[in-house]
C-alpha cells in the first residue's frame, strides 16, 4: 500500500521536464515546485521525466539536482530529494555498498537484510544487476569478501541476497510444521545460524515462512518474537529483523523510523532511508502500525523532529494520515 499521491490529470513527462527546468531557472530555484513535482510522482514516472529532461536540455536530471542542492543550507534536504529521484534499484545498490563499508557491522548487516528480505524477488534481482554495473563486482562477492561481516553471518547474508523466492501465496503446511520444529530447536539451542535454519529462512518464500511461524506459535504456545527475545544467541536480534522483513515488514520499518527520531538529535540517514524505501511499497501499513504501537501519528513525529524543506519532502512521501 503505497503512500505516493499523483495529480489527476497527470502531466506528460515532457511537461514535467519543462516545469522542472523553469523551477531551476531564474534568480533562484523554486524548491517547493521541485518538491511538489518529484515527490508526487512514482519512480517509474520520474524515470520517464528524467529521460525527457535529458533529451530537452542535454544534461542529466540527477546532475542538475546535485548542482542545485549544493549549498550548506540544503545539507538535510539534498540526500532526500536525490535518493527519491534515483532509480530504486540503483539507490538500493548504493545503500548496499555503503552497508559493506560500515565500521559497525551490525548496522551494515541490518541494511543488507532490509534490502534482501523487504524487497520483491524481481527488485532484489534488479538491485544485484545495478550493483554489478556500478561497482564491477557482484553484491554477493562484496559481502563474501568484506571484513565488515564475520562467519557465519557472512554466509547467511550471501544466501539472503542470492535467493530468488517464489512470490505467490501458496504454502506447504506439512513443510511448515516440520520446519517450525527445526526453528524451535535452533532457538532452544541458541544456535540460530545452523545450516538448516539458514537454508530455510534464506530460501523459502515469504508465504512459506509465514506458515512456519504460524505453526511455531500454535505448536509451542509462544509468539516467535517472545521466543527470539529470550534466545541468547548473538544473532537473535538479526534473525528477528530477517523474519519481520519477510513476514510483516511494516512492524520493522515503523520501529526503525521511530528509533531514528528518539533521543537527542535525529538519525536523518535512517529516517530518510526508512521513508524513501517504503513510500511505494507499504507506507500506509507502516503508518497504521506506527499509530497502533506508539499512540501518535508518523506525520506528527516528523513535524516535531524535522524542519524546512527536508520535513516537507518527508511529509509528501509519507502522504496524509487517514481520518479516524
UniProtKB/TrEMBL annotation:
Task: Tell me the Gene Ontology biological-process terms attached to this UniProt entry.
Answer: response to cold; response to heat; response to salt stress; response to water deprivation
Write one Pfam family the protein is assigned to: Annexin
Q: Keywords on this record?
A: Annexin, Calcium, Calcium/phospholipid-binding, Metal-binding, Repeat
Q: Where does Ca(2+) bind?
A: 24, 26, 28, 68, 265, 305-306
> Which superkingdom is the protein from?
Eukaryota
Its Gene Ontology molecular function terms? Answer: calcium ion binding; calcium-dependent phospholipid binding; phosphatidylserine binding
Coiled-coil intervals, chain numbering: none
GO cellular component terms, alphabetically, are: cytoplasm; plasma membrane
Family matches, as PROSITE patterns: ANNEXIN_1 (PS00223), ANNEXIN_2 (PS51897)
Q: What is known of its domains?
A: A pair of annexin repeats may form one binding site for calcium and phospholipid.
What does the similarity note say?
Answer: Belongs to the annexin family.
What protein is this chain from? Annexin
Instruction: Write down the species.
Output: Rhynchospora pubera
Amino acid at each position: 500500500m503505497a503512500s505516493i499521491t499523483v495529480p489527476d490529470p497527470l502531466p506528460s513527462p515532457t511537461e514535467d521536464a519543462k516545469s522542472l527546468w523553469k523551477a531551476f531557472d531564474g534568480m533562484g530555484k523554486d524548491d517547493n515546485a521541485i518538491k511538489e513535482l518529484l515527490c508526487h510522482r512514482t519512480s517509474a514516472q520520474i524515470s520517464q521525466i528524467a529521460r525527457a529532461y535529458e533529451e530537452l536540455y542535454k544534461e542529466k536530471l540527477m546532475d542538475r539536482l546535485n548542482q542545485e542542492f549544493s549549498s550548506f543550507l540544503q545539507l538535510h534536504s539534498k540526500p532526500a530529494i536525490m535518493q527519491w529521484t534515483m532509480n530504486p534499484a540503483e539507490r538500493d545498490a548504493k545503500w548496499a555498498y555503503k552497508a559493506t563499508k560500515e565500521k559497525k557491522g551490525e548496522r551494515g548487516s541490518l541494511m543488507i537484510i532490509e534490502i534482501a528480505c523487504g524487497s520483491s524477488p524481481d527488485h532484489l534481482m534488479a538491485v544485484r544487476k545495478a550493483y554489478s554495473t556500478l561497482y564491477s563486482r557482484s553484491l554477493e562477492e562484496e559481502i563474501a569478501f568484506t571484513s565488515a561481516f564475520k562467519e557465519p553471518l557472512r554466509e547467511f547474508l550471501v544466501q539472503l541476497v542470492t535467493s530468488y523466492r517464489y512470490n505467490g501465496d501458496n504454502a506447504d503446511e506439512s513443510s511448515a510444521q516440520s520446519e517450525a520444529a527445526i526453528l524451535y530447536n535452533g532457538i532452544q539451542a541458541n544456535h540460530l545460524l545452523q545450516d538448516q535454519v539458514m537454508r530455510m529462512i534464506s530460501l523459502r518464500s515469504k508465504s512459506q515462512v509465514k506458515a512456519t511461524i504460524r505453526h511455531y506459535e500454535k505448536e509451542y504456545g509462544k509468539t516467535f518474537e517472545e521466543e527470539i527475545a529470550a534466545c541468547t544467541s548473538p544473532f537473535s536480534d538479526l534473525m528477528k529483523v530477517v523474519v519481520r522483513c519477510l513476514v510483516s515488514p511494516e512492524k520493522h520499518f515503523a520501529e526503525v523510523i521511530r528509533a531514528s527520531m528518539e533521543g537527542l538529535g535525529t538519525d536523518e540517514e535512517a529516517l530518510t532511508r526508512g521513508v524513501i524505501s517504503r513510500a511505494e511499497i507499504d507506507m500506509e501499513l507502516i503508518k497504521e502500525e506506527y499509530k497502533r504501537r506508539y499512540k501518535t501519528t508518523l506525520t506528527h513525529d516528523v513535524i516535531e523532529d524535522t524542519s524546512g524543506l527536508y520535513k516537507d519532502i518527508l511529509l509528501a512521501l509519507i502522504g496524509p494520515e487517514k481520518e479516524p
